[in-house]
Each structure stands twice: as C-alpha cells, then as structure tokens.
Amino acid sequence: MGEQERGKGRGIAMRGERERGLWRKVQRGLWNFISLFIPWEMRIKVIESHFGSGVASYFIFLRWLFGINIVLMAMTMAFIIIPEVLAGAPFGSTSRKQIPSDKMEEAQDLDTIWSLGGYLQYSVLFYGYYGSERKLGSFGYRLPLAYFLVGMAGFAYSFIALLRKMAKNSRLSLSSTSEENFTFCWKVFCAWDYLIGSSEAAESKVAAIATTIRESILEEQEKKKSENRFVIGVSRIVKHNSIFNPLNVQTRRCAPADALEGNGPFILWRNHRLSVVVSLITMLAPSVFELIATLEQYHPRSMLRFQLARVLVLYLGNLYSLIIALLDKVDSMSSLVSINEHGTKSSILNFTVSPLGSISPSHGLWNSSSPTDGWPFAKTVTVASTAALANLSSWQALKAPEEHENVTTIFGSSAQCWETYVGQEMLKLSIIDMLFTVGSILIIDFFRGLFVRFASDCWCWDLENKFPEYGEFKIAENVLHLVYNQGMIWMGAFFSPVLPAFNVFKLIGLMYLRSWAVLTCNVPHQQVFRASRSNNFYLAMLLFMLFLCMLPTVFAIVKYRPSRDCGPFSGQEKIYNIVLETVEMEFPPWFNTAVSYVTTPVVILPALLLLIILIYYLQSIARSLKVTNQELRMQLQFPRLTRAFPRGRRALSGALHSDAQVCATELAEQRLQSASLVPRPDSPPTLSSDERVVPRTASPQTGHHEPKILTRKKEPPKRNTHTPDLAPARPYIPPGFLLRPPLSSSGKL
Amino acid sequence: MGSRASSLLREEEIEEIKRETGFSHSQITRLYSRFSSLDKGENGHLTRDDFQRIPELAINPLGDRIINAFFADGEDQVNFRGFMRTLAHFLPVEEGTRNASPREALNSRDSKLRFAFSLYDLDKDDKISREELLQVLRMMVGVNISDEQLGSIADRTIQEADQDGDHAISFSEFQKVLEKVDVEQKMSIRFLH
C-alpha cells in the first residue's frame, strides 16, 4: 500500500518534472535559435579566447554601434528618403533638383564626383534636394515636418539607447554577488565545459582558460604592487602639464588664421601650416602619453582609460576646430545671401569644390614617414585637419576677393545651399576616413607583419624582437576612432540623410577587416587584463561625443536662416518654424493657446526646478540603496567570518539583534581587522566583485572556417627571469600565430 | 545485435542494477544498448580505447581522467555493472534509490563530489597534492603558460583551500571549496526514460 502510494506520487512528480523539463527545453531551444541571429558571435568568441576580453570589448562595442546605426538608417530611410523618392518631384523637374547648366559639362568629371558634386549633389543624398511642399502625394505626407522630426528623433533615440545600455551595465556590475574567496580553486576545478564537442571550440576553450589564468595573475600582481608615492606624484604633475601645453598650442594656432599674405611659391606651405602643426602634435602626443603612462604605474585598466581620455581630448580639439571653421563659413554664406539679392551667377561653387577636391593630393604630404605608434592617428587626424584647413582656405578665398574685384563671389539664385555643403563635408570626411582606415590597417598591420616575418632572415637585426616587431591591437585608439566616427555621423545626419546608411556598410566592412587583421597579424598583449564587466567608460565617452555633436546641429537649427532655394525648410525664418507652423494650422485653436501658455517662462522655469529636485531625490535614493546593498553583502559573509574568527562570534551574534547599521559597521571593522591581522601567511586578498571571471563557453557551431594564420617561424628566445612568483610570462604560443617574444616585464600595454 | 543484447541482460540483473543505482528499467535497457554499441569487441567489456572513440571525451583535456574513473583499480576492462555504477553518480538527486538512505546513495551530493575528487586525486591517497594539481593544470592549458607560473597557481590554489596546513587538499576541504557551487545541478544528467 505504502509502496503503491509512493509509486503514484512518484509518477505525478515525474510528470511535473517532465513538464518543467519540457518548458526548459523549449526555452533553451528558443534561445539557441535567437542567438543564431546575433551577428559575428562566433568571430568575437574566437577573438576573445585568444586575445582576452579587452580586445573583444572593442568588437562588442562595434557591434552595438552597428545596431544603433541600423535603427537610424531605418528611420531615415522609411520616413524621409523613400517618401521623397516615391512621391516627391522627380529629378530635373524643379530648379533646385537639377544641375545648373553651367555645371553640366563637368558634372561627370571624376573631380566633381569625388567631391560629391554634380549628380550626387542633386540627389536624395543631401538636404538640398528635398522639396518644401507641405504635403506630398495623395496621402498628404508632410515631408518637411517629417524631416525635422526624424532628425530630432534620431538624437533622442541615440540618447535613450545609450543611457539604457549604461544603466543595464551598471546594474550588472552592482548585482554581481559577493566576493569569493576561492577564485583560483574554482578556476582550476571548474573551468572546463564538458559539453564541447567540436575540436575548434575545444581549442578556443583552452586558449580562454589560459587567458583567464593570466588575467588573474595580473590582478594579483597589481594588488601586491607597492607604490612609490613620490615618483607617481611627480609623474602625474608632469603628465597633466604636458597635456595642457600641446592643447594650448593647438588652440592658439587653430584660431582663424590671419589672412593669407599674398601668393607665392610657399603658398602651399602656408596653407597647410596649420594642419602640419596639428598633425605633428597628434602624432607625437600619444607616444608621449604612453611614456608618461609607464611611469605612473597604474593598473593597466586605468592606464588604458587615461590614455583614452587624453587622446579623446586631442580629438575633440581637432573636431571643434573643424566645427568652428564650418560654422564660420556657414555664417558668412548665409549672411552673404541676405546681403546680396542679385541674381548674378557666382563662382562660389568652384571655390568650394576645388579646395575640397584637392584634399586627395594634399594627403600625399602626410602619408610619408611617420613614427611607429602614431600611424593610426595620423590618417584620421589629417583628414579632419585638412578638411578644416580646406574650409579655412576657402573662407580665406572668400575674403580675398574683396580685394580682387574681378572675381565676385556673390550667391546666385540656384547657387548655394549651406546645408548641402555641410552634408557634403561630413560625407566626404566619412568616406576619406574609411579609405584611410583600410589603408592603415593594411599598411601598419598586414604589410608590417609580412615584412617582419619574411625579411627578418636577411636583416641586420632581429626584426621580431626589436624595432618593428609585430603589432599589438591598440584598444584605446581604435575605440576612440569608433567614437569619433559615430560623432561625425551624428553631426551630419541632419544634413545628409543617407549618412547612417553609409555608416552601416562602413561598420560591416570595418568589422570583417579588423577581425581578420587581428587574428592574422596581431599578437596578444603582453599583459592581459580583464576589461571591467561594465563597459561604461566607452559608453560615457560616446555619450559625451553625442552631446557635443548634437550641439552644432541644434545651434544651426536655431540660429541660421535656411537657404532660400533648397531644402524642405526653404522660405522660413528658422528651421524649427515648421513645427510651430504645423501646430498653428493643423491643431484646434484651444491647443494653440495651451501650447502658447506652456512655452512661457512661467511654466518652464518651475518645470526645470522640479526636474532638478527630482534628480537630486533619485540620486540620494540610489546612494542609500547602494549602502544597503553593501550591508546585506556583509551579512551574507557572516558564516565565513564567524567560523574564521571565533572570538568575534559573540559580538557578532549580539550585533545581529541590534540595528543593522551597527551590525554592518562592526562587520566592516572585523573585516578590516582580519585583513590586517593576516591570520594565515599570505592570506589571499579577495578580488573585487566585478573582476570575477566567468569564462563564457564557446558555442559549438559547425561550418566555422578557420582563420587564415601565418605559421610561427622560430622558437621564442629563452627568457631568463628572476621576476617574482606571479610574473607574466611571454611564451604564449597560439596555434600558428606570428609570435613576438617577451619584452621586459614592464612592457607596454 | 538486438537479440544478443536482450539475451545478455537478464531480468534479475536489471533488478540488481535498479536496486543498486536507482535507474529505471527503461533507462537501463537504453544504456545497455549504448554500452553494446561502444563495445566493439563484443565481449561484454569496455576498454579504454572504446571510450576514446567518443569525440567529446577525446577532445577533453581531462578526458583520460574521466575514462580512468570508470575502471576500478588495476583493471583494464569494465563490465556493464561497473559502467552503470559510474554513471549512477550523474543521476539527478531527486531520482535515486529508494532503499539506500539519501546520504549514501550513489547520486548524493557527497558521492558526486567524491567522484570529482577522484578525478584529481591520481594516487588515491585521499589528498590532492601540488604535483597532482600541476598535472591537471598542465593538461588544461597546455604549453601556453610557463611551469613556474603553473606552480604558483597550484600553490595559490592549495593555499586558498587548505585549512589544516598540510599543503594538500583533503576531501573535506574540497567539499568546502565547492560548497557554494551548485553541484547537484551541474553534475546531473537527465537520462531519458
């Protein structure tokens, strides 16, 4: 009887178990299916296992940016470009949509196409093409309103996505569990994933285990490092000074230059003097920064962050010089429009096209010799600087004709659209940046690798150990390049709606090219450190960039008068008038009065005040929650503490019954005491929570082709080391990589 | 093959295995067919080579250790009983023998941990010494990390876990290391019924 009942009970329990198992299976199957659609997952996992999570974080960041750009592209395509193509007036019908007759002969020249003139200028690529009829087609689609709203929505979406991601990341890092004491034991005993079935995945897993072990070694080393305070203090002072000085120099020189002193044989040098200085600074400064960084002896993760921050400041200086030049030009253009109402033809187009068209020859100047480390920089910086320079010089050319009356630069009726001009600039910048990136990857990584690999036989010194060596993947510069690139897109998206689409393809190409280059030509860093789980630093930089790049657009919308003859807002006083106009005409009158009340300072100022109060309140709540979190974590550590420190048990158990706060502080004191007493010799310091490494298992997928890798040539030279216990060793021998033998233990990042 | 299989496995054997390990009837027959398919020599025993033919075990760095765990001391062959006894370690904790007490059943947490412990304890002296850890590490990470570093890691591991100061990890210390790890879930296979 008992047996029977038990048997029945067991049957029912089994059924429930089976149902739950079924549901779990369905969930897992669904998740497996969805993860097939995550692009480049296998690629990134392979890179992560061989190079560590620092390098992989770059690719993950790139993939996330790709997602953002896809959404932006979808928005602009769906709401602006396609309606214009489908329902707007076709090419050639109105004056603004056709190439002016004097430009017709050269509309198909390579020069024109390269500088995005001709057919490209009068197409949906740029702002100037869009018609300003309030309603299009049979549906009455409001294109100008849509144009404005999509522009703003693009920024809003970027902000929201960015902030959500940052919040999710910080939640992840806060919610990770308490500190463990058995990290090494877990790594040794629990590291292998027994579900792996394919040999490639097994190789990746072995590499991943090796990498995580090396990362942990580094973490331990960092903890044991003693600081020489004096040296560090001095070096930090030096570092701060050395940043500000070049920036001063740069900004001084970037101020709009004096008028050109006549013509002459050295005009080229004078024209480019500015950008020579800028490029020199930006080439040399990162090396100087790195040098200083080695003096500082921060944790490598902090070193990376400082490097990033410094280089970001440099890039921003560059970017803002470009923006200032652009805005000056725009200012002059739109003010000239208001001054001159004659219909005389202008040759301003010539001025704009040719200096910009001469960007390519001028680049030849900068492609020459440059020191090793600055290479990835030089090209992106020179692009920006020569563009800035070109603007300056064309602005100069604008001023110069005031002295030479035969060349009048007066705007004509069909002549100029400053918005299209800005859009052209941005798109051109993006294209040239892409070309230079591809070039630099090939030259700096690939050819260098080939050269070192094959020529080191017949070379005077050992190429693999000394000078050129094999490249390491520079995380800081590359992330910054991504941020800069995205900033360009945000700046130009309002004036050239096709820019996000172009960026999507650019990012795809970049992903494939870089992942190939990393696996083929780079060697892992000498010191791998674990990228902090919350990658908020990159996102914070991106947020900063987004904010800065939104400002010029907003400024242009608010301050400048839209061109009279082109674009969806032609004829209005200000661009945002489209919204006011729509509100006035389409909405019922009571709505209008309501809106006019709301926009008075009487309502806006209190609302602002309320927002500030709300922010303060939420901040204080967050702070107190963090404290509570900490206390709870202490309490979880309770059992371990009581067992380790029996003499404190009574005090601790007594504290349990009293206030939680007191308990927490007592526990904190106990912990401090325990840390200093060191009951055991070399009691293991616990790693902080966000360094806990959980190596992700490589998902075994079939059909993954092996990366093309050049085979290793010679044995790594024997390394005689007297470094302490957990020194990082170099003989990392991944299957067939170009190998770079060990440098000194304080090698570069 | 099918008739041979069923003839070699008699009812009373199935009952015995059921009692000892806690598998159900259908599970035992299913596992027996798997056993026979692995047994290329068709003599009712599995050798080490038979196990090596399983791809997941072949690429596993600790594969040799796992295979060793199937074989009793000094033996070169394992019969079906031994096979089932080892597999019984991986039964989920809820399904177990009804006769044995929960503590001593083959799939209790204790037995699972003991199985894992035996993977690392080569000489079966009930302690994991530094050399054994070194061997395990060497197997896992290959030649990517130098010997001294591996030695330091082994030292560090022992330091973390060792409580009685004998510079080796005993079973109880091993248990303590893994007390936060969900061993019951991780070391369980849901055998098909």
TrEMBL record, chain A:
One MF annotation (Gene Ontology) recorded for this entry: mechanosensitive monoatomic ion channel activity
Keywords of this entry: Membrane, Transmembrane, Transmembrane helix
Domain of life: Eukaryota
Biased composition (Basic and acidic residues): 703-718
Region (Disordered): 673-749
Protein species of origin: Eptatretus burgeri (Inshore hagfish)
Boundaries of every TMC domain copy: 417-532
Family: Belongs to the TMC family.
Membrane listed as a keyword: yes
Membrane is among the record's keywords: yes
Membrane topology: Multi-pass membrane protein
TM region(s), chain numbering: 60-91, 145-163, 274-295, 307-327, 434-455, 487-505, 537-558, 594-618
Gene Ontology CC annotation, any one: plasma membrane
InterPro entries, sorted: TMC (IPR038900), TMC_dom (IPR012496)
UniProt subcellular location: Membrane
Annotated protein name in UniProt: Transmembrane channel-like protein
UniProtKB/TrEMBL annotation, chain B:
Gene3D superfamilies: EF-hand
Keywords: Calcium, Cell membrane, Cytoplasm, Lipoprotein, Membrane, Metal-binding, Myristate, Nucleus, Phosphoprotein, Protein transport, Repeat, Transport
Main location: membrane
Keyword GTP-binding on entry: no
Location relative to the cell: Cell membrane; Cytoplasm; Nucleus
Source species, domain of life: Eukaryota
GO biological process: protein transport
Gene Ontology molecular function: calcium ion binding
GO CC terms, sorted: cytoplasm; nucleus; plasma membrane
Domain (EF-hand) ranges: 26-61, 108-143, 149-184
Entry-linked Pfam families: EF-hand_7 (PF13499)
InterPro entries documented for this protein: Calcineurin_B_homologous (IPR051875), EF-hand-dom_pair (IPR011992), EF_Hand_1_Ca_BS (IPR018247), EF_hand_dom (IPR002048)
Membership in a protein family: Belongs to the calcineurin regulatory subunit family. CHP subfamily.
Protein name in the entry: Calcineurin-like EF-hand protein 1
